[in-house]
Amino acid sequence: MNFEPRVNEKNIQEATVLPENVYHSYLGEYFLGQTDLISLGGGYTGWGSLVNPAGSKVNMFLNAYTISNYSNEPLTAEAWLSSKRPGRGKTSPHFAAGNQAIHPARMPEGKIRNASFVSGTPQGGTHAFVRRVEPMLTLTKHDFQGIFILPPGSSFTLSFLSPGQKQAYARIAYGWWEEKA
Q1: Is residue 73 classed exposed, middle or buried when 0-12, 13-18 and 19+ CB atoms within 10 A define those classes?
Q2: How far apart are CA 156 and CA 169, in angstroms?
Q3: How do residues 33-50 score in pLDDT, each as one tens digit?
Q4: Rounded to whole angstroms, how far apart are CA atoms 107 and 122?
Q5: Contact 139, 66 (CB under 8 A)
Q6: pLDDT per residue as tens digits for the range 17-31
């Protein structure tokens, strides 16, 4: 057998392989955003959610999250899927499309919501995992490659347990893409 490359072959095709999140960013379907500052302590909790509204007609694929702990105390964050969150949350205005070369940039169907100083923890849904975030540190988890798929009417919530009587501050950022449901 001859393993030398054929220079004049006419059926050569070039292929570009992109990670899925980069591909969706190229299409204008990748988004990122963050919560407002979340405050907790004195027996009260706080949370930040990536929410897929019931009428969105898209599935949302979680790719990344970060938790920034601005406190001198470690924080415990619990991840919940499709739970009922305590208190009243507010929608964050801090989000953007990943592909800023598309004009106008597409707006996400998903929403980022957060609440501070609420009583209790999420109820129902699925308690997925727990993370500890050291003081004055940002914990980054990325390249989930969409393993958490949020259909319309569901959510991914990171809920902070109260650090006791001390006050704590945190912020959560999310990266996700959306596809038609």
Answers
A1: middle
A2: 20
A3: 999 999 999 999 999 999
A4: 28
A5: yes
A6: 888 888 889 899 999
- Region of residue 100 (phi > 0: left; psi between -120 and 50: alpha; otherwise: beta): alpha
Is residue 23 helix, strand or coil?
helix
How far, in Å, CA of 53 to CA of 59, rounded?
A: 10
Residue with tokens 């299409």: 27
Tokens of 150: 């949020």
Q: Pick the closest to residue 30 from 91, 109, 112 (CA basis).
A: 109
Per the omega criterion (within 30 degrees of 0), is the bond before 86 cis?
no
Positions of E strands within the chain: 30-34, 38-41, 45-52, 58-69, 75-81, 90-91, 95-97, 111-118, 126-133, 137-141, 148-150, 154-160, 167-180
Q: What is the DSSP string of 99-121?
A: -TTSSSPPPPS-EEEEEEEESS-
